Amino acid sequence: MKKLLFTLFLCVLAGGAAFAAPIFADDYTFQKQIIVSNADDTVTCQAFRIHQNWFATAAHCVKMCVASAKGCRTKIYLARGEVNAFVTVDPRRIFIPKQYRKLDAKGQMLADKKWDVALIHYEPDEYLYEFAQGGMATESEFAAALQEDPNLKTQWRGAKNPKIPALYIYGGDELKTLKSNIIVPRWENGRMSVFENPKSVLYFGNNQAVWGSEGFGVDHGNSGGAVVLEDGGVMGIATAKLDQKLPPDVQSAFPNFGQTDESFVFNGFAPHTTFSFIKKTMARFGDRPVTQKFRRFAPIEEPVL
User: Which of 28, 197, 200, 253 sits 20 to 30 Å CA-CA off 286?
Assistant: First the structure.
């Protein structure tokens, strides 16, 4: 199974269009849309608050800020409507695990998927405002837009006073299943989609962060977003999908998981990989995330309906 983690073909989720309806709710305002760009590319992803001063996202969303010599711009959209509020992040405040940034013989980033996590240090001095149709707006114009658009007001309230979710920490060698369903929210252009998965969610073991499930609609633009449980705690970071069937040995171990042509993979918060990076990076600034130990596992032999 350990070999599986290095041989699965992963197609990253970044970019693409949203097919969303507006949701006027406070549930997922800790998550925001981010746009990362340089001279060659633009990527649309998600990021979510794990502390007043920190966002977590996927490393593949922001790796151009480390790998490119052409400069990089990362915008966090805190609220989007007729007038948008955003902050531009200094690339020096974006942190990616050194294990993800290792280079191969050709000088290309190895991008080890089990380390697909990044942190953004968020200390805005001032917010910027822009009209959705283009052009910069004033703070007073944004304030007026807040009074007219309840969805914009909800997003802004969540940005100013976020409900910080707990990160579920877990580990272990054994293959296991999750007893809870997962939810994957996505903001795009100020509109939200919520993807709910009632199927088996599987921990691949080996004390690593990787989880998988059957495909359930999670697609482009979800990368870097939170994988949430029903109680609001965060189980992981949306990472990738598989556009192919799993290898026969995996289908044998996970018969329910192996019957789909598309599978969803996400990274959780394992003590020896992703959470170790989060904890050490935040500690350099005197911060720490809210955590909770996760215990809702079931043995792999136990079917999850």
Answer: 28
By C-alpha distance, which of 34, 40, 39, 41 is closest to 94?
34
Contact 45, 61 (CB under 8 A): yes
Tens-place pLDDT, residues 236-256 = 999 876 554 555 555 666 666
Q: With cut-offs at 50, 70 and 90, classify the pLDDT of residue 303.
A: very low
Longest CA pairwise span in the chain (Å): 60
Residue 165, pLDDT > 70, answer: yes
What is the model's pLDDT at position 36? 94
What average pLDDT is seen over the chain?
82
Quote the tokens at residue 68.
């490119």
Residues 6+ apart with CB under 8 A from 162: 29, 30, 49, 52
Which tokens in the block code for residue 155?
């997003």
Contact 238, 225 (CB under 8 A): yes
> CA–CA separation, 233 vs 30, rounded Å?
12
pLDDT for residue 255: 65
Q: Tell me how long the chain is.
A: 305
Q: How far apart are CA 212 and CA 56, in angstroms?
A: 20
Give the torsion sign (CA, 32, 33, 38, 40): positive
